[in-house]
Design brief:
This protein is mostly helical. The protein is built from 5 helices and no strands.
Length: about 70
C-alpha cells in the first residue's frame, strides 16, 4: 500500500490541492484521502477508485494465477 500512498500524495501535490480540496473534487471524505496517504490497509476499494480516477487509474482484483502467465 505504500506505493499507493506515495502515488496519491505526489499526484495531489502536483496539481496543488490540499487533502481537503482533493477529497471534495474526488467525491470522498477527507478521512479517505488521509487514510490512503498514510498507507492504511483497510480501505474501501470503491473509495480508492474514486480517488484514483482523478488521475485516470483504477484498481481491480487480480487472480494470482494470472500473474504467473
Amino acid at each position: 500500500m505504500n506505493g499507493l500512498a506515495e502515488f496519491v500524495k505526489q499526484r495531489r501535490k502536483e496539481v496543488n490541492l490540499t487533502q481537503e480540496e482533493f477529497a471534495e473534487r474526488a467525491g470522498v471524505a477527507l478521512t479517505v484521502v488521509r487514510k490512503i496517504e498514510q498507507g492504511k490497509t483497510n480501505l474501501n476499494m470503491d473509495k480508492v477508485n474514486l480517488v484514483l480516477r482523478m488521475f485516470g487509474h483504477e484498481l481491480a482484483p487480480v487472480n494470482s494465477k494470472d500473474l504467473l502467465e
